[in-house]
Amino acid sequence: MTPQMASGKTSESIALLQDRIITCGLCPRLVEWRETVAREKVRRFTDQAYWGKPVPSFGDPRARLLVLGLAPAAHGGNRTGRIFTGDRSGDWLFRALHKAGFANQPASVDRNDGLRLRDCYVTAAVRCAPPQNKPSPRENANCRPYLLRELELLKRVRVIVALGRFAFAAAIASVGLDEQSSGRPEFKHAAQLHLTGGVTLIASFHPSQQNTFTGKLTEPMFDHVFTGARKIIDETL
Fold it and tell me: H/E element holding 79?
């Protein structure tokens, strides 16, 4: 099988997985919340049709970088239908990815805006917008198989950037710590851990307004995470 054929089969499998995610209704609380938000909206988006369903992930099926977030924002991905698209967190993320050479443009406002990711795939631990950005343990568990399947399909991933503590824990639970890792993993901005299969996990504060407005996360700090990811990837044979 040629690399092109293998890539095509992977793309098709990922597309089928996303179709399955979009129709998911396993979590009644999340279904009710995402649909209520989509129906009631907020004033600044009253003229827009909200997505209001589980939000699919997207990116390059041959990606070596996986960016893992918590969940779609109520008026971001839950509105636009694409993860990290149409909110302030996404503004930070795609600007940083563009600077590091992983995206063809520095901003994303909707799922048809021409954004293309290079060697990068963006996903989330939970696929529906949760109330107060806090999914329950059961909701997290219900979504875990989708992330596990993506990791199976994204065979070239060498670096996972986890945005926030929740994503950090999800990455470790899904991939597992390398046998040489010892002690309890500590979440610290820009910290690196070795996971099984030669994957490096890089922790980052989430680019939420709570972190960016207060200066807990600055643009140079965030850029440093992705230049670090780029360095690891470029050194990988």
Answer: helix 77-80
**Rounded Cα gap, residues 52 and 75, in angstroms:** 10
- The CATH H-level (homologous superfamily) assignment of domain 3-235 is Uracil-DNA glycosylase-like domain (3.40.470.10)
CA dihedral of residues 228, 232, 234, 237 (deg, nearest 10) = 180
What whole-number distance in Å separates Cα of residue 218 and Cα of residue 92?
10
Residue located via tokens 């907020």:
42
| Cα-based distances in Å from 202 to 43, 62, 167, 185, 219 | 37, 19, 11, 12, 16
Note the pLDDT tens digit of each residue in 190-214.
999 999 999 999 999 999 999 999 9
The span from the CA of 210 to the CA of 29, in Å, is 25
pLDDT tens for residues 133-174? 999 999 999 999 999 999 999 999 999 999 999 999 999 999
Which token pair is 187?
A: 């979440």
DSSP-derived 3-state class of residue 53:
coil
pLDDT of residue 1: 34
Task: Find all residues with CB under 8 Å of 216, minimum gap 6, and list them.
Answer: 205, 210
Helix axes 219-235, 88-99, angle to 10 degrees: 40
